[in-house]
Structures are given as structure tokens and as C-alpha cells.
Design brief:
By secondary structure, the protein is α+β, with helices and mostly antiparallel strands. It has a domain of 108 residues: Immunoglobulin-like (Sandwich), CATH 2.60.40. It is 20% helix and 38% strand. It contains 2 helices and 10 strands. A 5-stranded antiparallel sheet has the order 1-9-10-5-4, with no helix packed on it. Helix 1 packs across helix 2. The longest helix is centred in the first third of the chain and has 21 residues. It starts with a strand and ends in a 14-residue tail after the last strand.
Amino acid sequence: MTEAVAIRKISSLLDEMNQMQERIMRRAYTIFERNGRLLGRDLDHWLQAERELVWRPALELRETDGEFVLEVAVSGVDPKDIDIEVTPEDIILKAGIQHEHEEKKGTTHICEFQSAKMYRSIHLPKRINPDKVKAEIKNGLLKLKAEIAEEVRARKIKTEAA
């Protein structure tokens, strides 16, 4: 079953990036405090916070026939929970995944599910037309097609003798 996914246009990435960086910074500081405020492990704390807070699904970006085709593995994410924002230069994908244990009989011995926020910002090698972007999900794969803007498409020019 294929489901369409809504797309929004945004004017700037800067606010989105700053918010995500702030969340990671706060979490890294919490990890620093939890580990006894030992100095010299800033990068380790930052990377751990980033792994805990940001889910980075696999993706592939191809260019074919005047458009970009972006495929992203989003298995288990409800299409209505995916937020897609586009600018002429970037595609931003966001979603939240939550895992909670239900009250069940028995004991859970292993659980590798986690709660996190997906945040992927893909900077495109060529400008696109944000009004002509389409997205759909089928079998856990988000497929987004973005038409390359006319002004950046290569054109053949016929030379004439002088």
C-alpha cells in the first residue's frame, strides 16, 4: 500500500539546526554531570547524546531524468508522523519514534527498540523547485521526487558558423 506524505516549504534551515544542536548540547551536559564532571571527554559526551537523540535512517539520493529521487528507510514510522520540509537547496526529514513497554505478563530479557527523533538534512547538489516535490511511503521506504529547477538544468546550444 502506498501512502502520500505531506510536504512543507520553509525559508531557512538555521532555526531547525540550532534547535537540534541545543537539545544535543543539553543532553551532553547531563551525561557530563552523570559521569562525575570529568574533563576531557567532551566529544564522547556529544557523540553519545547525538546517538541517543537523533535517529539517522539510511538513505540514497539519485539524479535521473531532470529530478532527484531520495529514498529513506523509515520502517515502522507512520506516514502521518513524518514531517518533510523543502527549500530550493535542502530537504529536511523529521519524525519521532516512541517505544514503550506495555503491561504484559512475563519478563522482557532483550529490547533493542528505542525512542528517538529522526532528523536528516540533505543538502542538494542542484537547486530544486519546492512546488514540484512529491513523496510517498511504500513497504517502509519513503520515496521523494524533486524536480530540478529549470535554471540549473544543462542545455545544449547549437553552434553556428560566423
